[in-house]
Specification:
The complex is a heterodimer of chains A (418) and B (157). Chain A is an alpha/beta fold and 418 residues long. Chain A is built from 15 helices and 18 strands. Chain A has helices spanning 5-14, 39-48, 74-89, 101-108, 138-147, 172-183, 198-201, 205-213, 229-237, 296-299, 302-312, 330-338, 341-348, 398-407, 413-417, and strands at 24-28, 31-35, 61-65, 93-96, 115-118, 132-135, 149-153, 156-163, 191-196, 222-225, 256-261, 268-270, 278-280, 291-294, 322-325, 351-352, 373-376, 392-395. In chain B, helix 7 (138-146) crosses helix 8. Classes of the chains: A alpha/beta (418), B alpha/beta (157).
Chain lengths: 418, 157
Amino acid sequence: MAMTIGEKIIARAAGVDEVKPGQIHTVNVDYLMSNDGTTHLTIDMYNNKLKNPKIADKDKLVFIMDHNVPAENPKTAAAHKKMRDFAKANDIKLYEGKGVCHQIMVEEFVKAGQFIMGADSHTCSYGALGAFGTGIGCTDFLYAMVTGTSWVMVPETIRFNLKGKLREGVYPRDLILTIIGDVGANGCNYKIMEFAGEGAHNLSISDRFVLCNLAVEAGAKTGIVEPDEKVVEYCKNAGRDAGDLFVSDEDAVFEKVYEYDLDKIEPVVARPDFVDDVIPLSQVGDVKIDQAFVGSCNNGRIEDLRVSAQLLKGKKVHPDVRFLIAPASNNVFLQALDEGLIDIFLESGVMVMNSNCSVCWGSCQGVIGEGEVLISTATRNFKGRAGHKNSKIYLGSAATVTASAIAGKIVNAEVIYG
Amino acid sequence: MSRIFKFNSDVDTDQIIASQYLLLPNIDEMKEHAFESLSTDFAKDVKEGDIIVADENFGCGSSREQAPAVLKALGVKAIVAKSFARIFYRNAINIGLPVIVSKEVYDYVNDGDTADVDMNEGVIKTAGRDFNCTKLPEYMQNILNAGGLIAFLNEDK
């Protein structure tokens, strides 16, 4: 039977020849990732609620501390200690302060064709390398940790055929926000968003990461870009094989097919408080900002930092704006240092933060106050997500955020380049 | 009888429980902060056995299981919505909190109305009518019937 990429990955994980949407299958999970947002609760349940606590395969587990790192109060410190101690006692891989969980997973572990669950909604990012990543809660995590398996209801696939190339000054962030604005926050609820076509193959792995990362903001179970030679090259450079590069069969069944011409995508922003409230940047009006942020699992990679540095070189952050940049991982941070980007940031007045979720998480770093306006490359702009419940968050590309930080209000980067 | 607390569409998990409370030691310490950003007295007013009725896409956003967990800890007996975001839906079932899809109930009730929820039959009696709700797939119903995924796991092993 013809299958889509996502169906093929589920079939592989379930050890069956074929799967169909709506079926429920037990799957073997290739990796299980958990971060400090919920791991303390998982450990409590493991210790107190299970009849027979055991870990099926410690090598499949990855613990990453990235949300409230470093700890901002004693209760967080206690949660971190619990996670650290458990990892040590059970010989589980632990990353602390090394970067945002999804960035680390893609840099270190993910292969095409894998089925990966993570206790974080943006686990859907792993489709950048042709894997099926999906977010779960801590009870699901616990079950998979104990059994090595989980269950999945096979979702239908919605295909996005991409053609052409993004024009200069237009970024994958603009593309995915445009798509989410079109389909809505519920538009791909429990679906697989599959990105394919020559336009998808024109995108770099970092670009693909941006697309898949925000799939959950359209309600999707995961996002997957059709893997190709770029995935092979990425994995080779990272010192691992690329895994199984599944592509959809020609007669695979898609619930819907959308066509997007990348050449026609314009810079956009998402307005407060919904990721799907997307308007062209040209229509945003006069919006003064108090803070700007470049970072997160969506836009904290070297490509984004280069865009910011190019705009900031020889300029200053607007005196009324705090501009925070958090590289997505220490590998990105080191490369930015090597390329002289951090010098540019510091000289222009940027606050460079350690590699973590930072402002996107809105809990321990760069929190905004009542009535303040933030423009951000964060994953979400929900009400109160970055601090006070009566603050506002706009989402845009690293170029739009950086240009706005220089201008003091939301502008197109063209304004800065002149 | 359950009191109905009515919510609009796209209620996200950050609204249900904000990030800054997620690393508190346990759900009981978190629950008083439920829906804090909406400036409602929900956490004070909700009583054991009450229900939430919502429009589309309830629980969108993060995978934080603290979201359904604080609602359950506050006594919410069930959530009835036109649709749910997928991670929230699965998390709710995993912790034994019934989530019921009904395209109709929301349009017929007001905040503060009362309802009778018959979980076994999948029927909600309110606004002078009986509403039949979409049934869960058997696998998920079995998890819910066990009281959640951990109870299911403990039974299994």
